[in-house]
Amino acid sequence: FQTPPDLCQLPQARGPCKAALLRYFHNSTSNACEPFTYGGCQGNDNNFDTTEMCLRICQPPETKDKS
Predict the structure, then answer these.
(1) Please, what is the average pLDDT of the chain?
(2) Which of 1-10, 15-24, 46-55 is least confident?
(3) How many angstroms separate the CA atoms of 26 and 34, rounded?
(4) What's the angle, vertex CA 19, arms to CA 56 and CA 49, rounded to 5?
(5) How many Cα neighbours within 13 Å face the side chain of 46?
(6) What single DSSP character describes residue 38?
(7) How far is CA 6 from the centre of its chain?
(8) Residues 19, 27: contact at Cβ < 8 Å?
(9) Domain 6-59 in CATH: superfamily?
(10) Is residue 63 pLDDT above 90, yes or no?
(11) Which intervals hold domain BPTI/Kunitz inhibitor (predicted)?
(12) Which phi and psi (to 5°) does residue 51 adopt?
């Protein structure tokens, strides 16, 4: 089992700007990628363009030990 990167533990962060961009963040409480409205600047790295990208980084498939 791979541990997700630290960025996946960061809270949702809209940022101070006023844009309304649909982005996705990994909610570490529900262990799911969820939509949020991003303001367009600052925020943090827990911010993905698509659900698929969020899942790929924060919920990688389990890896089998080949030994």
Answers:
(1) 90
(2) 1-10
(3) 6
(4) 10
(5) 22
(6) E
(7) 10
(8) no
(9) Pancreatic trypsin inhibitor Kunitz domain (4.10.410.10)
(10) no
(11) 8-58
(12) -60, -40
Owner of token pair 């911010």: 47
Is the model's pLDDT at 64 over the cut of 90? no
Place of tokens 């030990």: 65
- Exposure string for 12-24, b = 16+ CB within 10 A, e = fewer: bbbeeeeeeeebb
Contacts of range 9-16, beta carbons closer than 8 Å, 24 or more positions apart: 9/46, 10/44, 10/45, 10/46, 11/44, 11/46, 12/36, 12/46, 13/42, 13/43, 13/44, 13/46, 13/47, 14/38, 14/39, 14/43, 15/39, 15/40, 15/41, 15/42, 15/43, 16/41, 16/42
